[in-house]
Hints:
Blueprint: E1 5-7, E2 10-13, E3 18-23, E4 33-39, E5 46-52, E6 57-59, E7 67-72, E8 77-82, E9 91-101, E10 105-110, E11 114-119
Parallel strand pairs: 2-11
Antiparallel strand pairs: 1-3, 3-8, 4-5, 4-9, 5-6, 7-8, 9-10, 9-11
Amino acid sequence: QVHLVESGGGLVQGGGSLRLNCAAPGTMFSFRSMGWHRQAPGKQRELVATITSGGSTIYADSVKGRFTISRDNLQNTVNLQMNSLKPEDTAVYYCHADVLHKVAGILDYWGQGTQVTVSS
Length: 120
């Protein structure tokens, strides 16, 4: 069983910064990709950023140039540095990781979510 544990959310003023962290303590898996999604009230969950084990990244257009994703493959951690935060970044942020299983295919894992609130 894989547990993703997030930390680093909170309340910040517009223009400020936050850093989200996600770890998978005790797991023996090597994650294919790790990343962050978010869900604002009344909206669908959306991709924020993702990074492969090789370091390739994808960002949502709305966060390009402001957010930076990084990961440590040995520690199985992924971080999201969020700068120049805007009120529209307010959401619950979820850590995501996936594994390519030989038999079961792609297995997805999610954290419990951490709240990010940006005041205007």
